[in-house]
């Protein structure tokens, strides 16, 4: 079983949304300035869950852009701890200075933590939670069109939601994707962002994904390649790197532009 969602940095900032419950699920909610639910975005988190500061800050950015944003706890309180992010996959500069012993210890921690977590959160368990939450949001008064925005682990489920379950979907560095199977039933507008240094999704698989989407002449799609970007770049990039920050900003614009176009009334 492959790994997912490991690399990245925790960002500074204070989220401005609030926590609620919808359909029995804890949810971080961030409202647009006008409070309208006409364009709703559901963020499908990575393995670090709904409380990751980066994800909440990004939810706030989408809200500022005019979207009503829900960030649900899809792991039922069982997300992987933030500390695992740095200990298992430290920044590149740190990693280059690690000894063989340090690298071996980090690899052992990944092997002991990630596969068991993935086994506890298989598609057979996670997909009904996600589909159920989408249906819950559909019946919230004021809701019109709905989009899903997924990252890493959640990126694959954003792709699956484009099988007619939502009005539009966006996925950045999706992991554990079955290519071409997961793309074959896409019937709603889908935008994907892929880093060409992603160690979890090969450029060959990325090209196959693009080919499947391009073959769907009646379904709008977009597949953007981000050069010199690793897995997790759109959510957990390094703000101290101008190139990484620019990639994050561009990815944010990619998602917002897609939703502005396909969630329009």
Structural class: alpha/beta
The largest pleated sheet is described as: 8 strands, mixed
The helix-strand sequence is EEEHEHHHHEHEHEHEHH
- Shape descriptor reads globular
So how many helices? 10
Low-confidence spans: 1-8
How many DSSP-defined strands? 8
In what range is the share of β-strand residues? 15-25%
Spatial strand order of the main sheet = 1-2-4-3-5-6-7-8
Radius of gyration, in Å, reads: 17 Å
Please bin the fraction of helical residues: 40-55%
For this structure, the quaternary state is single chain
Cα-to-Cα separation, first versus last residue: 41 Å
Compute the average pLDDT.
90
What does this entry look like structurally?
- This protein has 265 residues and is of the alpha/beta class.
- Helix content is 42%, strand content 17%.
- It is built from ten helices and eight strands.
- The protein has helices at 53-64, 83-88, 92-97, 100-120, 123-138, 153-161, 181-184, 203-214, 233-236, 242-262, and strands at 18-22, 25-30, 39-44, 68-72, 145-151, 168-172, 190-195, 221-226.
- An eight-stranded mixed sheet has the order 1-2-4-3-5-6-7-8, sandwiched between helices.
- Helix 6 (153-161) links the parallel strand 5 (145-151) and strand 6 (168-172).
- Mean pLDDT is 90; it is low at 1-8.
Task: Show the helix and strand layout.
Elements: E1 18-22, E2 25-30, E3 39-44, H1 53-64, E4 68-72, H2 83-88, H3 92-97, H4 100-120, H5 123-138, E5 145-151, H6 153-161, E6 168-172, H7 181-184, E7 190-195, H8 203-214, E8 221-226, H9 233-236, H10 242-262
Parallel strand pairs: 3-4, 3-5, 5-6, 6-7, 7-8
Antiparallel strand pairs: 1-2, 2-4
